[in-house]
Design a protein that fits this description.
The complex is a heterodimer of chains A (about 400) and B (about 80). Chain A is of the alpha+beta class. Chain A has a domain of about 200 residues: Chloramphenicol Acetyltransferase (2-Layer Sandwich), CATH 3.30.559.10. In chain A, about 25% of the residues lie in helices and about 25% in strands. Chain A is built from 8 helices and 20 strands. In chain A, the strands form 5 sheets. In chain A, strands 9, 12, 15, 17, 18, 19 and 20 form a 7-stranded mixed beta sheet that branches. In chain A, helix 1 packs parallel to helix 2 and helix 5 packs across helix 8. The two termini of chain A are about 45 Å apart. By secondary structure, chain B is mainly alpha-helical. Chain B has a single domain, classed as ACP-like (Non-ribosomal Peptide Synthetase Peptidyl Carrier Protein, Chain A, Orthogonal Bundle), CATH 1.10.1200.10. Chain B has 4 helices and no strands. In chain B, helix 1 packs across helix 3. The chains are: A alpha+beta (about 400), B mainly alpha (about 80). Chains A and B meet through helix 4 and helix 6 of A and helix 3 of B.
Chain lengths: ~400, ~80
C-alpha cells in the first residue's frame, strides 16, 4: 500500500516551493521525522521531514521544480507493506507530476524522444526568463538547447520590479528576487488576515522590574552559554497562559475554532535585510526555561541561516512578536491565519511608575494582543494578557 | 596575538553569527547594531563564541563594550593571554 507524500504546509504566507535536492532515493528506508528533501522558498531553504515510517517507492517531483503546497512529491510504501502485492484493481500508475501546469517546467517528467533536448541549466534559465524552450532551435551537441540559446530568445527586458500580479509559479528559480518574493508572501498573508479575521486589540503595561532583576542575577552567575534573554521569559509566560485559557492557541478552519492540544509558540524572527519568519518552539509550555532558551537560540540561528524545518513553520499555535530591539513601546500585531491570536511585546524601558503612592523609576513593558473576534471577546483577551503579566511577576516559577 | 590578528578573529566570529554579513563591508567604528541589525540574540551568541574561541568570559553588564569592532578590540586586547 503506497502513500502519497505531499509538500507540507509551510506557514500562512508560503504557498509553494522549489525542490532543491532529495536526501533519499527510491528504495531508501525512512523514519518519521527524517529530513528527506530540501525545498527553496521565499523564506530560505526549508528542510522537509517525512511524517511516516516506510520505504521510498518513487520520487515524483524532481529537483528544480516549483510546486504548490499539497503537491504529491514522493510515494512511500508504509513500513511492513513494502513487499505486499497491491490489491487495488488499478495499481497506482506513476502519478504524473501533480499541480498546476504539469507540462511546462515539470522536469520530473521523463522527456519523450521527440521532445527537445534541453540542458538542466538551460531549462532553469528558461524558467527564469519565461522562455518557452520547446519553441527554440538548439545549437548544442545533438541539437540540444543551451543556456546561450535561451539567453538569445529572452523576451525584451521587463521593468525591473516584477510588473504584473503574476501567479507564483512564474517565480521559479528566482534568486536575486528572493526578498521581493518574501515581501509579496508577507503582504498576501497579512491581506488575507485583515480580510478574514475580525481583529480586536488590547494592550497593558506591566512593571517587570522583578523579572529584569531576577534575569540580571541569573545571568551574572550563569556560564555564558546558559544566560537567558528576557524574550525567553515572555515566550514561556505566553505558553503557560495559553494552557490556562482557551481560545488563543489553536486554529480557525472551515468555520470553526479548534484549540490545539499542545502549545507551540512561534517567535517572529526579523531577517537581516528585511522580511521575517515565525517558526515555532515546539511544546513551549512543557519546556524548562533553560531548554526553551537553547531551542530559541538554535531556532533564530537556523532561521537566519535559512535552514528551518517545514514542521517548525507550520506548527505555531500562537505567535509572539517582540519589537523590543527596535525601541518601540508597543506593537499592534496582525494574526497569522489560521491562528487566532498574536502577542506583541515592546521594549523594556525605565519609566516613572507609581508604587505605594510614590513615583519611582521602574522597568516596564507593554504587552499587546491581537485576537480573533470569531473566537474570543475583549474580556477574555484581557484575562489572557493578565495571565501573561502575572507569570512575568514570578520569573523563578517559569 | 596582536591588534590586527585579534580584529580578524573577532570579525570572523561576527560573520559566523551573521553569515549574511560581508566581512569586507564591516566598518570598525560603527556599532554592529547600526550596521546590520545585530540584536540581543546575536550579542548573546557573540559572547558565547568569544568565550569558546578566545577564552574571554564577558559579563552581561559589559556587553555594551562589544558594540563595534573597535570597541571589541579595545576591550578584549588586555584580556587575552
Amino acid at each position: 500500500m503506497s502513500s502519497e507524500f505531499k509538500l507540507p504546509a509551510l506557514g500562512a504566507d508560503m504557498d509553494d516551493g522549489t525542490i532543491l535536492e532529495w536526501h533519499v532515493a527510491p528504495g531508501a528506508r525512512v523514519k518519521r521525522g527524517d529530513v528527506v528533501a530540501v525545498v527553496e522558498t521565499d523564506k530560505g531553504a526549508i528542510d522537509v521531514e517525512i511524517f511516516m515510517d516506510g520505504v521510498v517507492r518513487e520520487i515524483v517531483v524532481a529537483p528544480g521544480t516549483r510546486i504548490p503546497v499539497g503537491t504529491v512529491i514522493a510515494m512511500i510504501d508504509a513500513e511492513g507493506a513494502a513487499a505486499a502485492p497491491t490489491l487495488s484493481p488499478t495499481p497506482t500508475p506513476s502519478p504524473a507530476p501533480a499541480g498546476e501546469g504539469g507540462g511546462e517546467g515539470s522536469s520530473s517528467a521523463p522527456p519523450s524522444a521527440e521532445r527537445q533536448k534541453v540542458s538542466p541549466a538551460a531549462r532553469r534559465r528558461a524558467r527564469e526568463l519565461h522562455v518557452d524552450v520547446e519553441a527554440l532551435t538548439g545549437t548544442g551537441p545533438g541539437g540540444a538547447i543551451t543556456v546561450e540559446d535561451v539567453e538569445r530568445a529572452k523576451p525584451a527586458p521587463e521593468p525591473s520590479p516584477k510588473p504584473s500580479p503574476q501567479p507564483s509559479p512564474a517565480k521559479a528559480g528566482e534568486g536575486a528576487e528572493g526578498k521581493g518574493g518574501m515581501r509579496e508572501a508577507i503582504a498576501a498573508a497579512m491581506s488575507r488576515s485583515k480580510r478574514e479575521i475580525p481583529h480586536y486589540y488590547l494592550s497593558t503595561t506591566v512593571d517587570v522590574t522583578p523579572a529584569t532583576e531576577w534575569l540580571a542575577a541569573h545571568n551574572a552567575t550563569a556560564p555564558v552559554a546558559e544566560r537567558l534573554l528576557f524574550a525567553a521569559l515572555i515566550v514561556k509566560s505566553v505558553a503557560l497562559a495559553c494552557r490556562e485559557l482557551e481560545g488563543f492557541s489553536g486554529f480557525y478552519r472551515d468555520g470553526r475554532y479548534e484549540q490545539s492540544p499542545s502549545v507551540h509558540v512561534g517567535v517572529a524572527v526579523a531577517l537581516r535585510g528585511g522580511g521575517l519568519v515565525a517558526p515555532a518552539i515546539m511544546d513551549t509550555a512543557d519546556k524548562l526555561l533553560a531548554v526553551l532558551m537553547d531551542d530559541f537560540r538554535a531556532l533564530v540561528t537556523r532561521a537566519r541561516a535559512g535552514r528551518l524545518r517545514a514542521s517548525e513553520l507550520a506548527a505555531p499555535t500562537i505567535i509572539l512578536t517582540s519589537l523590543g530591539e527596535a525601541s518601540v513601546d508597543a506593537v499592534f500585531p496582525i494574526i497569522q491565519p489560521p491562528q487566532v491570536a498574536i502577542v506583541g511585546a515592546g521594549a523594556v524601558v525605565e519609566r516613572p511608575w507609581v508604587v505605594d503612592g510614590k513615583i519611582v523609576p521602574r522597568q516596564v513593558l507593554t504587552l499587546s494582543l491581537g485576537a480573533d473576534h470569531r473566537v474570543t471577546d475583549g474580556r477574555l483577551g484581557a484575562q489572557f494578557l493578565a495571565r501573561i503579566a502575572a507569570r512575568l511577576q514570578s520569573p523563578a516559577s517559569l | 596575538m596582536d591588534r590586527a590578528e585579534l580584529a580578524r578573529r573577532v570579525l570572523s566570529l561576527v560573520t559566523g553569527i551573521a553569515p549574511d554579513v560581508d566581512a569586507a563591508t564591516v566598518i570598525p567604528g560603527i556599532d554592529f547594531r547600526d550596521q546590520f541589525d545585530f540584536d540581543s540574540m546575536d550579542t548573546l551568541n557573540f559572547a558565547i563564541a568569544l568565550h569558546r574561541e578566545l577564552g574571554v568570559d564577558v559579563p552581561e553588564a559589559e556587553y555594551a563594550q562589544l558594540a563595534s569592532l573597535d570597541k571589541c578590540v579595545a576591550y578584549l586586547l588586555p584580556r587575552i593571554g
